[in-house]
Amino acid sequence: MHYVVIGHPCQDIIPTGYAWGGGVIYSGLTAYQLGATVSVITRCQLHPDLDPRLHWHIIPDTTTTIFENRYDPLSGERQQFMHARAGDIDISELSKRKISADIVHLAPVANEIRYEAIPSLDEKTWLVATPQGWMRQLGDNHRVIHQTWQGAERLLPYLNALSLSEEDVQGDLELVRYYASVVPFVLYTKGYKGAVLFMGNETLSIDAFPASVVDLTGAGDVIAAAFFIRLYETHNPQEALEFGAAAAAIAIEGRGASNIPTREQIAQRRRLQQH
Description:
Largest sheet: 9 strands, mixed
CATH superfamily: Ribokinase
Distance between the termini: 32 Å
Order of helices and strands: EEEHEEEEEHEEEEEHEHEEEHHH
Number of helices: 7
Radius of gyration: 17 Å
CATH architecture: 3-Layer(aba) Sandwich
Strand content: 25-35%
Strand order of the largest sheet: 5-4-1-9-11-14-15-16-17
Oligomer: single chain
Number of domains: 1
Shape: globular
Mean pLDDT: 94
């Protein structure tokens, strides 16, 4: 499987310096751990320490997007700050670079992906998205605040699946139902409260798998990529939902992207959950 992910990698500020983050990192490494060949189309400075397991197609920039995530120790609520932002990426880069893929995953973190002209894709290629980056804008003191996804109706009809969080839509279920009226599969994640998969007027729900939480960063990207891949492989929504939930539970038991699971680890966690 060839998995292509588009968006900015982020330098996430941590006490010891920074760690690589963002959807292209977490989703890309999830796809890699599940056996895919992963290509990343991105825009940033040229960094020698970008993960070599991913194939990087970089539009050179003078800066790299920098985020700081702060979590409330009781509620787990996240506050984000963006201290720098690389330039935009046009989705046409996909066709310009003549990259073919089984799955193309749009993973913006800072409203950086432009899709005024959707490129023509092979009919077997799935176009999927985690739209959180289109739902962000900068407020005072570099604080990231919510905004409505502008121009969503232009992209939605082309998507095979969409994954977003309760935080992304501010808990607006009517908005999620609207997306599900256009996109065949919409995964709505709710953190420790589990997830709901919307399929038109039908839904499937799952509780979150038990986990010894170390770091919640990237959980939404892990569940999304695992869900997309398993849905593409099996066309079984229940299977994909359980697979994604197990993957996310394992990932948050390590710091950053250090604990993204393999297929065997996911299978083991699912077996434990059944007993």
